[in-house]
């Protein structure tokens, strides 16, 4: 059934599940990056404890990703092998997330009277080299997310989730619907 024809309650439930799934994945990715940064800085006796930022960023950027998915961003290869759509979406969404984060930091910085460079100093260290490096890390970390998403699209969400989260003897039995 087309999502347009689903009752409002089902669409809201589906979008909410998708939002929290994306948020959780992004939170894990961003939290790992923050922990890694804090470990490196701790080696130089620099205290870095902005761990809550990972959750805030995940909540905001999950909505950006959900909106970009609804706009079918990166759905350009249609019938191509899944590796192409997975890699393309990982790259496109990384660019979208990085641009959104930079714009967000610049706007917040402008409100506080900071320059562009001062505004993006916290985002990946503020240098272009560090921004590109963190963006590449995020791109690589998005590959499993979009790989799983593309497999869900091909096999159907119930079948793929059953393979991952149900005992094998129950794989061919229908999962409970909302």
Structure characterization notes:
- With 178 residues, this protein is mainly alpha-helical.
- It folds into 2 domains: 1-71, no CATH class; 81-178, no CATH class.
- 71% of the residues lie in helices and 0% in strands.
- The protein has 6 helices and no strands.
- It has helices at 8-43, 52-70, 82-111, 116-119, 128-155, 157-165.
- Helix 1 crosses helix 2.
- The longest helix is centred in the N-terminal third of the chain and has 36 residues, at 8-43.
- The protein is globular.
- The two termini are 14 Å apart.
State mean pLDDT (0 to 100 scale): 82
Summing up helix and strand content along with how strands pair, one would put the structural category as mainly alpha
Provide the gyration radius in Å: 19 Å
Estimate what percentage of residues fall within beta strands: under 5%
Report the order of strands and helices. HHHHHH
């Amino acid at each position: 059934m087309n999502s347009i024809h689903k009752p409002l309650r089902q669409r809201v439930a589906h979008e909410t599940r998708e939002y929290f799934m994306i948020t959780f994945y992004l939170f894990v990715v961003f939290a790992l990056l923050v922990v890694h940064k804090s470990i490196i800085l701790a080696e130089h006796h620099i205290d870095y404890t902005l761990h809550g930022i990972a959750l805030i960023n995940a909540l905001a950027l999950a909505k950006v990703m959900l909106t970009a998915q609804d706009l079918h961003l990166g759905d350009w290869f249609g019938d191509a092998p899944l590796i192409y759509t997975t890699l393309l979406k990982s790259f496109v969404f990384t660019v979208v997330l990085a641009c959104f984060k930079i714009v967000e930091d610049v706007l917040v910085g402008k409100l506080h009277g900071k320059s562009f460079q001062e505004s993006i100093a916290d985002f990946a260290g503020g240098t272009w080299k560090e921004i590109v490096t963190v963006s590449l890390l995020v791109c690589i970390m998005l590959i499993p997310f979009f790989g799983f998403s593309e497999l869900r699209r091909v096999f159907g969400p119930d079948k793929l989730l059953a393979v991952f989260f149900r005992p094998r003897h129950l794989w061919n039995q229908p999962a409970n619907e909302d």
